[in-house]
Every structure is written in C-alpha cells, then in structure tokens.
Amino acid sequence: TTTADIHITQDGKRLYVSNRGYDSIAVYEIAEDGSLTLVGIPDSGGKGPRNFTISPDDGLVVVANEKSNEVVVFVEDEKQGLGEEVARVAVPAPTWVRFGG
Distances in Å between the alpha carbon of 11 and those of 8, 52, 59? Predict the structure, then answer.
C-alpha cells in the first residue's frame, strides 16, 4: 500500500519490495523470462520499513524501520525470503541503510 524501496539480488533471482503500509518486505522469484512469482510477504521486524539493503553476497537483508526506530538484520532464506533475525539495533528514525564501499 505504501511501497518505499525495491531491490534485486546480485544474482538477479529475487526482487524485494518494502511496504510501509503492512510493515513487510514482499519477496518475488524472478524467472528467466522476467516474470515474477510471489515467494512471501514476511514481516519487516518493525514499523515503517522505509529503506533496506541486501548484502553483496545476497546473504543478509538489512531493514531500516523508521517508525519503530530500529534497524533489523535478517538472514536471506531461500524458501521465504527473510529468514531468521540475527541483529536488531536501536536507531532514531532510520531512513537509509547500505553496505560500505
């Protein structure tokens, strides 16, 4: 309902879209022909997922949940997109995250 950010994994196999209206990250599988299949719509781990990033090795998804004042790190999961939460850090109104470089 209120999309904020969209990313494709480095390998080009997954599309992730943040949704602030439902506090979630929609995950789609990208087929060879470019068509999309919904994998899941897991919870973002907080409120107001404004921005997120995917690690260069496609192993982690880091979500800036602006309205709950935290950044949450998930392991990327082949079956559901966002897997286990591995870290949570309090950050006042985070709006942007990225891996260095």
Answer: 8, 17, 11
